[in-house]
Structures are given as C-alpha cells and as structure tokens.
C-alpha cells in the first residue's frame, strides 16, 4: 500500500548505478518513477518511461509528458483514503471495516456503489483531464477481515469484475497493478506492469521505522514476482524503503533488486523522492 505525506527530500547516488541497473535488467522493464509530492520536479520525472503520480498534485500534465513519459494516476481500489475529499461522504454500506495502519476504510467490492464511485467519480474525472493510465493500489485489501473462503472468493470475483469494467468503460486504458497476485490468472493480461513493495527493505507504518525484510517473506514475494514476470509477461518494479540518511544501503538495495531483473525504486514511504545521479 502506497500513500503520500507530501514532503520533499533528495538523495545523491552514483551515476554508475543507473547505468549498471540498465545493463543488468531485461529490456522489457520500463523505468518507472513514483512521486506523490507537490510541487512535482517535472524535468527529472519526464525522463522516465513511466511516472506514477497523485493526480491532485499535478498542475500541468502535458509538461510531465513532454519527455515522452507515460503518466499513471494513483487509484486506491480496495480502500477509501481518509484524507481524500471525494470519499469522505460515501455511505457506510460500501465498507466492510477499516485499516487502522493507514486510517482508511476497507471497501466491500461487491457493492455496486463502490464500483460506481471508482469508475464514474475517480476514473472518469481523471480520464477527462487526460490520464490514460492508472496505478491500482490496495488490490489485496479485500483479504482483510474476510472471515470465510467463500466471502473472500466473492470479494475477489468482484475485484476482477471491477478491473474488467475499467477496460470496457475506458478503451485504450493502461493499468499497473500493485501486487494482486491472486487475480493475475483472470486479469493479468490487462496489465502493462506489476509493482510490489518491500523485497529487501521495508517500512513499518505502526512503529514508524525502517527495517530489513525477513528471508521467509522475501522468498514468498520473490516467487510471486518471478511468476508474474515469467508466466504473465509483466515487467516488474520493486519499491523498497530506506531512510534518507542511509545512501549506501539505498544503493546496495537498488543493485540487489536490479540483479534479479526488476526495476528498482528505493525511496521513503511518502514517495516524494527523485534520485539525483552524479559521479562520485
């Protein structure tokens, strides 16, 4: 799950790392930047193949596209963020509970009103502004507080229906998934990429601390990332979280991710960092 807290910092890492990553990754992996802060560093972001943004913070979409980047708007599919104005007055029957880690409400994906909100409120408005790509977050949230396998199956089927409806409603739409491994057999062909967080280094929103990922969690995630790439043909981007005062660890983490054939994006959990590359 990825959210922004809107603050700006920058990291300096060696320019050689950028070249090393490009050389060691499959050609199908697009360079993907994530930036949810404001104002946007347009000149830096426009050099990437893909840029994922919080659309409410984008003033000039065309300027961001000027360097050829495809721009993807953030969309929370399984939860309503507490800070987003458009979701504050949604009726309670659209939700099954809450996610205390992120102060958000977990959606009941089987509710027609939730699907209507996503497609006609959030997506249609952004489509009219010129967005043709969306980054689908919280795809796994339906698993929270779902007491029986039958109920979980119903939620998963509703999620699949929502994604299919997105493509029907918006022809030419491009989607990047954040995880969503369980639904890839049904809708993986509709995605142009997959993202996962915390392969080597993570952020704990409860303790507000950084730390390494356990070997068991890393192996579980790595198995699914390899399957997403090898079975479903999806280019994979991995986002890991490292404190801004630990540049050597950030560099090491990026190298490890790239060595596995994934595109690395190492940042802070607020995702308002763009690497500045320079020769040491």
UniProtKB/TrEMBL annotation:
UniProt-recorded name of the protein: Glycoside-hydrolase family GH114 TIM-barrel domain-containing protein
Glycoside-hydrolase family GH114 TIM-barrel domain mapped to chain residues: 42-271
PANTHER family: PELA
Short name of one Pfam family: Glyco_hydro_114
Signal peptide start-end: 1-26
Keyword list, A-Z: Signal
């Amino acid at each position: 799950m990825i959210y922004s807290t809107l603050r700006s910092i920058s990291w300096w890492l060696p320019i050689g790392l950028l070249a090393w990553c490009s050389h060691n990754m499959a050609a199908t992996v697009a360079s993907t930047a994530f930036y949810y802060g404001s104002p946007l560093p347009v000149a830096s972001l426009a050099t990437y193949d893909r840029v994922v943004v919080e659309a409410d913070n984008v003033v000039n979409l065309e300027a961001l596209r000027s360097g050829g980047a495809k721009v993807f708007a953030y969309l929370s599919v399984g939860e309503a963020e507490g800070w987003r104005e458009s979701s504050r007055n949604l009726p309670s029957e659209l939700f099954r509970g809450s996610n205390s880690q992120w102060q958000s409400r977990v959606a009941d994906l089987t509710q027609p009103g939730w699907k209507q909100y996503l497609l006609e409120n959030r997506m249609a408005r952004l489509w009219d502004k010129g967005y043709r790509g969306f980054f689908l977050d919280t795809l796994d949230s339906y698993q929270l507080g779902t007491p029986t396998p039958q109920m979980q199956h119903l939620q998963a089927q509703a999620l699949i229906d929502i994604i299919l409806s997105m493509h029907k409603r918006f022809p030419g739409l491009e989607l990047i998934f954040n995880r969503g491994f369980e639904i890839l057999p049904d809708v993986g062909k509709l995605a142009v990429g997959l993202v996962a967080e915390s392969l080597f280094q993570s952020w704990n929103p409860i303790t507000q601390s950084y730390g390494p990922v356990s070997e068991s969690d890393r192996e579980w995630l790595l198995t699914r990332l390899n399957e997403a790439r090898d079975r479903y043909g999806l280019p994979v981007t991995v986002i890991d979280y490292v404190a801004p005062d630990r540049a050597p660890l950030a560099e090491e983490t990026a190298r490890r991710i790239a060595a596995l054939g994934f595109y690395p994006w190492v940042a802070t959990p607020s995702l308002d960092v763009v690497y500045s590359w320079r020769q040491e």
